[in-house]
Amino acid sequence: MPLVSMRQLLDEASKGGYGVGAFNVNNMEQIQSIMEAARETQSPVIIQASRGARAYSQDRFLYHLMQAAAELYPEIPTVLHLDHGNSPETCQSAIEMGFTSVMMDGSLMPDGKTPASFEYNVEVTRKVVEMAHAKGVTVEGEIGCLGGIEDGHGAGGDGLSHLTDPDQAVEFVEKTGVDALAIAIGTSHGAYKFTAKPTGETLKMETLIEIHRRLPNTHLVMHGSSSVPKELQDIVNQYGGKLKPTWGVPVEETQLGIRNGVRKINVDTDNRLAITGAIRKVLMEKPEEFDPRSYMKPARDAMKKVVAERMVQFGQAGHAKDYAPLSLEEMRKRYQSEAVTA
Ligand code: 13P
User: What pLDDT digit, counting tens, does each position of 193-224 carry?
Assistant: First the structure.
């Protein structure tokens, strides 16, 4: 099966009332972990790469690894998504390379750090929607800014500085025509999201519920959604790591989000922790080892376990064969006819 459109996956998730995890990758082992987890749980899947990941993998390696994934796991509907595109040019290059979905993050300026104006965000996102839909490619936009920083991208600070305003969210969707909308509700990228288990003061689920009430037909996206489990932190620290105590987004809060319009859930940090813990364990317990496979295999297994667990928790498990994927050409025609009737 060729790589498929994210819009179709999210529309199907909406019909079925479940969420789909979007897992970040940089290399072959991470792609293998996700595809194995998807096969084991029979899940449709979104694999995403940031600008940093594209640079790390020189783009073409990533693209061909994803082609291999589509070839080896033909029964799994698989999306290749650009995470946090910083400009229309970055999105264009991803579309030309074969990504089936792109995020235009116009909540920040092209430096990936400075919060942008609403007008700028609308302008660049609208531009990407026109360009992407003409090729059947999906677009995710963002309104409000996440906290933290990931791969050099992010507003920094805590997640409460630039929360999404529900009125602006409605206007943004109307003006841009995005397929999916990332909102800022207090989460941030990376391991250090909350200094204690989040409460309504730090994780604004009521804002999410209000946005869903105002935009019932828009697929919402939760970024910074790793749960940063204590067990994974403990393994890293047990084998020489130095993580400070921290809290992520409890899975039950993500599930509350899924009951309120969240269809895409971004997870990177949990997998990074699982990989690092597994590698540290081997290197510490068997210092004589020097074959990279001796630690990359356990790392791959550890990430697969986390991903499979999330697929079950988000509800996407068991839905891989619910529908026949549409080609990007069919999606292009669909967007075109919507534009004509709009
Ligand atoms: P985490 O750092 O919580 O895994 O979030 C990843 C993310 O949102 C990627 O865009």
Answer: 999 999 999 999 999 999 999 999 999 999 99
% of residues, the chain, pLDDT over 90 = 92
Taking only the tens place, the pLDDT of each residue in 24-76 is 999 999 999 999 999 999 999 999 999 999 999 999 999 999 999 999 999 99
Contact 108, 141 (CB under 8 A): no
Task: Compute CA 62 distance to the chain's CA centroid, rounded to the nearest angstrom.
Answer: 16
DSSP state of 329: H
pTM of this prediction exceeds 0.70: yes
* AA identity, residue 216: P
Query: Model confidence at 152, in pLDDT bands (50, 70, 90)?
Result: low
Tokens of 96: 């030309």
User: In this structure, are residues 145 and 184 in contact, taking their beta carbons and an 8 Å threshold?
Assistant: yes
Contact (CB, 8 A) for 77 and 53: no
Query: Is the separation of the CB atoms in 160 and 202 below 8 Å?
Result: yes
**Per DSSP, which regions of 230-338 are E strands?**
262-267
- List phi, psi (to 5°) of 219: -75, 120
Task: List all residues whose CB is within 6 A of at least one atom of ligand 1.
Answer: 24, 83, 150, 189-190, 223-226, 266-269
Backbone angles phi, psi at 81, to 5 degrees: -120, 140
Spatial contact of 40 and 16, defined as CB atoms under 8 Å apart: no
Residue 313 phi, psi (nearest 5)? -65, -35
Question: What is the distance between the alpha carbons of residues 54 and 103, in angstroms, rounded to a whole number?
Answer: 14
**225, 247, 310, best to mutate for ligand 1 pocket (most atoms within 8 Å of CB):** 225
Q: In this structure, what is the dihedral angle of CA atoms 71, 77, 83, 86, given to the nearest 10 degrees?
A: 90
